[in-house]
Amino acid sequence: MKSKSELKQLSRNYNYLPISYTTNLQTFDPFQIIEHDDPSNQHSMLFEYQDSRYTVVVTKPLQTITVKNGQINLTDQNGAQQMITGSPIQFLNQLLDKYRVAKTNSLPFSTGLVGYFGYDFAKYAKDSRLSDTNDELDLSDVELMLPDITLTYDRESQQLTLSQLLASDQFDANYEQVIVRLKERAQLIKELLANPTTKLPGLKITRQFQNQFDVKQFDQRVAKTEQHIELGDIFQLILSNPYLAQANGSLINVCKNLYQTVESPYHFFFANRDFQAVGASPETLIKKSGRKLFSYPLAGTRRRGKTKAEDVKFAKELQASQKELSEHNMLVDLGRNDLGRVSQFGSVHVTKLRELLRFSNVMHLGSKIESIANPAFSSVDIISAVLPAGTLSGAPKESAMKIIDQLEQRKRGIYGGGIGYIDFDGDLDLCIGIRLGYKKGNHLVVHSGAGIVADSDANQEFHEFGNKSRLMLDAIKAEQAQEAEQL
């Protein structure tokens, strides 16, 4: 971590500086902090990444940024709103330029933007020809938060770091004041965690889950997809069939169940007014660390076996399936092409191919793609190039997305988008919006998708939704059981 004199030197070259304070902390419960700061779950985010090493918590952001139907809405801490017209991509690029900072500590993320880019953010890319889809839930295309104080807990070092932006022209006058504020906040957190008193709000299901499409309706959509494949319009398409329900209350307890019971590279909880999302995503959309870019496509799925022998059997079936191998190779090629658009020429390489990865309820084939970022492209440009991932759309991507709009007949929102952070120093880490549920008003949605190719079995793919959604549905069921016990 930089000393005061080192920060003073950096203040000559940057408009803002991340000021940080680190303290030792043996255990960390992010849910106690969210419930203390944001008991109604209106403006907060939890993001756990790097295989659960780091947990970021943001509450009471300085500003929330929402993009919907081309309109940009800025809301400050007091609820005052400002509407902005123009290109969302250009606006976000200008915002990142304004807050460009030097890296002042060893954490992957300390100051920047947190939140999500929805699946439909792709329509703002310059080459997009996508039409607007049915949006009965009035879902946003982007929801981001500009933190006041960012909390980052490093589980490996057992340290909590608190970070705040400070304008360089206010460094001399306000540096000590910021340090005192961060120390006071750290002490408050320690006292809160030592004496937990808050109770997480529950969730009450008022209408039970039902798939958007029944078996017959889904079979018809698979048949239409295969017709497009035969005509050469696409090679593959990821078709979604969400579980829909109605509920009152908060998803925060569902997130806690996932956080405590499900091993996953990512966990997240996001709340902004009447919208909440929770998930345990196994897949990275895009990660940037320094000049290096990383993508980790997952494609090819089997459920976990009930016994060790059955698990081995399913793994061998997955690794021998020509359908799954073909699908995976196709999407790795698409991922290479996407990364190549924002990378230095010749720097894109597949460093791992078709590795077997086991998760709580399913297993996947996974690969790793690396490259060197082209400095001409911003973080938002990089996200625009890769979103949505081919593993959530199909190939060719834009043709697949147009067909998805026709077949699914509803906006995907955060499903298939990217959730995570953009650091003001240029780094970023976004997971793909899968293994998730979201709630808008009293509408509750659990999303998953199935990869359709020429020889897909519609009945098998229909049941794959249950396998992929089981993790989220079980977490909701567990939350309901806990609520019933407390009555």
UniProtKB/TrEMBL annotation:
Keyword check for ATP-binding: no
Assembly and oligomerization: Heterotetramer consisting of two non-identical subunits: a beta subunit (TrpG) and a large alpha subunit (TrpE).
Positions of the Anthranilate synthase component I N-terminal domain: 46-162
A GO biological-process term: L-tryptophan biosynthetic process
Source superkingdom: Bacteria
Cofactor(s) needed by this chain: Mg(2+)
Swiss-Prot/TrEMBL catalytic activity: chorismate + L-glutamine = anthranilate + pyruvate + L-glutamate + H(+)
Residue ranges of every copy of the Chorismate-utilising enzyme C-terminal domain listed in the record: 216-468
SUPFAM superfamilies for this protein: ADC synthase
Protein name: Anthranilate synthase component 1
Keyword Mitochondrion: no
Keywords, in A-Z order: Lyase, Magnesium, Metal-binding, Plasmid
Function: Part of a heterotetrameric complex that catalyzes the two-step biosynthesis of anthranilate, an intermediate in the biosynthesis of L-tryptophan. In the first step, the glutamine-binding beta subunit (TrpG) of anthranilate synthase (AS) provides the glutamine amidotransferase activity which generates ammonia as a substrate that, along with chorismate, is used in the second step, catalyzed by the large alpha subunit of AS (TrpE) to produce anthranilate. In the absence of TrpG, TrpE can synthesize anthranilate directly from chorismate and high concentrations of ammonia.
Molecular-function GO terms, alphabetical: anthranilate synthase activity; metal ion binding
